[in-house]
Every structure is written in structure tokens, then in C-alpha cells.
Amino acid sequence: MILDSLQAISPIDGRYAKQTAPLQNYFSEEALIRYRVRVEILYFIALCHELPQLTKVLTKVDEDRLHAIYKDLDSKAAQRIKEIEAITNHDVKAVEYYIKECFDELGLTQEKEFIHFGLTSQDINNTSFPLMIREALDRVYLPLLERVVSQLEVYALEWADVSMLARTHGQPASPTRLGKEIQVFVYRLQEQIQVLKSIPFGAKFGGATGNLNAHAVAYPNHDWISFAERFVHSLGLSRERFTTQISNYDHAASLFDALARINVILIDLSRDFWMYISMDYFKQRIKQGEIGSSAMPHKVNPIDFENAEGNLGLANALYNHLSGKLPISRLQRDLTDSTVLRNIGVPMAHTLISLNSLLKGLDKVLLNRMALMNDLEHNWAVVAEALQTILRREGYPKPYETLKELTRTNEEITAQSISDFIDSLDIAPEIKIEMKAITPFSYIGIY
User: Fold this and answer.
1) Which domain holds residue 388?
2) Are residues 257 and 387 located together in one domain of the fold?
3) What are the tens digits of pLDDT across the range 312-321?
4) 86: CATH
């Protein structure tokens, strides 16, 4: 059955299906089947290079044919596995039986009992899931996130010399540069991307209760620990040496926490741009035919930043549940990890929607320099910090209190009132000249 986007229950498979389509290769049911088949096949090939019964079994042609089982796995093959699962009521065992059918076709019938040799289903799941997450991050998520960071870097450079009134507690504060404020987000995201990239992709591979029991009883003199380490490492993963039947999920939890932390930064970014638009610092590029409000024709709403914020929140609700739930299991194993693991593509999909919305929103913003200049011109009181600091340097009595008396008033502080104040001070003429050179446009610090 082909799913119509209008009939999808979740918007990630409906309204936003085109945006989330790249994740189908990693988090769909068919993709999970393909990863499981891949791990089973690679494990069998690894055994063929270790065990005496298998060392002379495979030719180079045979190996290529085995690799083709997972590389060429299509919807028809996945459906066959689902048919087997309908009988076994066990998804990983269905994969094993399907591969055995393939072995029969390849003339490897006598070797097929070494498929899934000594393993439990979680040895396959706890290598398949981190493998799919790693590849989805590398191939889909990180390239899109880095596009957002790159666009922010462009703006940080383009607006590097644009003076802007800062607001702390929502009130006018010491001026800053618009480019520097954008660079803050670039810096924060780059820092957290490095943290994300440093987290190992942990995998459990140790049999029914993590002790390699079946391997050891069948081949007691074989170094199975080294074998397991080498095999997991060959997948680009890090083996968790001491586990129960399932992964400890501590690395996975760290990963989900890191992804959630990046999303928190992006929520902060979305809200700031929303505020800048509301303050008229940014206009938005108008798209022909687009409607902002069904009632108010003039409106151009910041919907892209709102869409991003909403989807980032949904993603983090799931990431937080995953990181808080997965490391907890009753005794040596319960099934709660399995049921939530199937949802790891959902927060990733919401994040993808948000990143696309952010790119769209950032592409539409147009700097309104006049609004920034007007804001600075009407807030001369913000130079008070500069003036009282110079007076401190010069040993002037009670400089903070003097400026407080001048500026904490309901009357507007202007360039003229600041100038008159400076003239009234009992300080050297050259200091007055220095102080009068300070304006809301020039008092912007080092960055």
C-alpha cells in the first residue's frame, strides 16, 4: 500500500514528507531490516576468517554475493522478511531465516547454521541502531546543520560593523555589534558540534547476557573478546565490553543529550531572530502570492522561525525521553528499550524540519539599518557606563552615583543632555573631549 501524505497520522510522514524523506534510508522499517541483514552478513564473513570449519569456505565471488544480499535488499526482500516475521513473531529471527534462504540459493546450505552463531537479537539490534544513527548524522543531519552554521557565519561577517542596541532584561544596555551577536550562535553551535562528534557510538556484542557464553562453550580456546572488539570496530563502532543482554546505552544517552543541547541553541536562535523581526531590525523578503494572515493583509509573519522552534521542542521532548529511559533496564533486560528505539528517527525528522525552516527563514531576512540606528539614537543613556568608567579612572568622586542621577529619569537622554552633563563636570578639558567622542554608535567594545 502506498501511503498518501494526506492520510498520514504524523506530519513528518505527511505534511513534511518531502523534507524528512532523506531519513527513510536510515530509520524506516525497511532500513532497519537492511541494517540487520548487513550486520548478520558481515558477522558471518568475519567468522569465516576465524573458525576452522569456515576459513576455506568463501571465495572472493562468494563474499561479493554475500555483500549483495544487504546492498541490493529492496522492498520485495523486506516484505519477504515481514512475511517470515508474521510466522515467527520475532523480527530478528525472521532476518536470520531470510538469510538462510539466500544461502540455500547461493549453495551455502551447509554453512547457514553459522548465521547468527552464538548471538542474541540484541547483538544485532545494538549494532544496527548505532550504525544507522552514525550514518544518518554523517550523511543527513550534520551537512544540513553545517549549512545553517555557514549561513550564520556569512551574516556575522556581513554585519560585523553594524552597531546595535543590546538589551539585557529586555531593557536598553551597552551597545554591541549585530555581527558579533550572530557570531555567538556560530561559536556555540561549533562548540557543541565538536562535542557531538567526540561521543563514541557504543555497541553491545556479547551474546545472551553479555558474557559470550555460547561462543566460549563452542570454541573455548578462541579469543572471542578480541574477535568481538575487532568486529564491532570494523563497523565503525565502539564495543561496550561489560553489558547485560542489551547495550548500556550510556553513549547513546550522551548522543541524544548533545543533539538536544544543539536544539536548545537553535531554539534560542529562532527566538532572537523572531524578536529582531518584531523590533523591525529585520524585514522579510516577500514571496509573491504568499499570505501572512487570513484577516490582516499587511502581515508578513516570521513563520519559519516559529515552525523551527515548535519542531525543535518536539524533538527535544523525545530526545530527553530517550536519554532518560534507555540506560534503565530491569535486571539483565526488559523490552522497553526495544519499543522506544524504533522512534529514534522521529526526533531526527522534527530536527530536519526545523533546520530547513531555519534556512528558509534566514534566507528571507533583510537588514533594516535605519531601525537599528534609530534605536541607538533614542538611547543615549547607554553611554553612561562608559562615562562613569572614565570618571572612575580619573578618580572622580562617586562617578556611578553621578551618572545614575542623570540617567534614571523618565525624560529622554539625548546627545545634547549628555554633552551638557560633561560640560558641567570638574574635569580636565582633554577628558571632556574624550568623553564627548563616545556615542551609542561607537561604544561597541572589542568584538
Assistant:
1) 379-436
2) no
3) 999 999 999 9
4) 1.10.275.10
- Residue 169 is among the residues annotated as catalytic for this protein: yes
Q: Is 49 designated active site?
A: no
pLDDT tens figures, 74-109: 999 999 999 999 999 999 999 999 999 999 999 999
Catalytic residue among 150, 226, 278, 293: 293
* Annotated active-site residue in 169, 198, 294, 298: 169
Distance, in Å, from the CA atom of 70 to the CA atom of 182, rounded to the nearest integer, reads 45
Q: Is 164 exposed, middle or buried (0-12, 13-18, 19+ CB in 10 A)?
A: buried
Given this model, what pLDDT does residue 298 score? 54
40 and 177 in a common domain:
no
CA–CA dist 160, 180 (Å, integer): 6
Picking from 117, 135, 152, the residue at the C-terminal end of a domain is 117
Task: Specify the amino acid at residue 278.
Answer: S
pLDDT of residue 110: 92
Measure the CA–CA gap between 291 and 301, rounded to whole angstroms.
Answer: 9
Note the pLDDT of residue 295. Answer: 47
Among residues 117, 133, 155, the one where a domain terminates is 117
Looking up cell 522506544 gives: 340
The per-residue pLDDT for 320 is: 97
**Domains: count for the chain:** 3
Give the separation between CA 147 and CA 88, rounded to whole angstroms. Answer: 45
Residue 84 lies inside a defined structural domain of this protein: yes
Q: Which pLDDT tens digit goes with each residue over 21-52?
A: 999 999 999 999 999 999 999 999 999 999 98
Yes or no: say if 57 and 65 are a contact pair by the CB < 8 Å rule. no
